[in-house]
């Protein structure tokens, strides 16, 4: 039987954080969110409790990218994707960023 990854927790000082809507595992601090608008998906620079699949080339709205599906490490739900490589120079800023569909995130802790 394979080893189960130990769930990581964001510090209590994270006044606003996002969690997996399915299992409530911590995913990201609001400060790591790049796209602050309320639209789907959310672009995040750093995340916890995320596993990446194998990168594959996909033609997206902004061109050809190598992306990997990302999953919640706790419940294995597909959350979105990670940009591994951008083929166009104007899209290089996306490399290493996580895209999480808002339908898979819930706000937690301090959202008054």
From TrEMBL:
Molecular function as annotated in GO: metal ion binding
InterPro entries, alphabetized: Yippee, Yippee/Mis18/Cereblon, Yippee_fam
Pfam families registered for this protein in UniProt: Yippee-Mis18
Keyword Zinc: yes
Keywords on record: Metal-binding, Zinc
Record domain Yippee: where: 16-109
Keyword presence, Hydrolase: no
Protein family: Belongs to the yippee family.
Name this polypeptide is given: Protein yippee-like
Originating organism: Geodia barretti (Barrett's horny sponge)
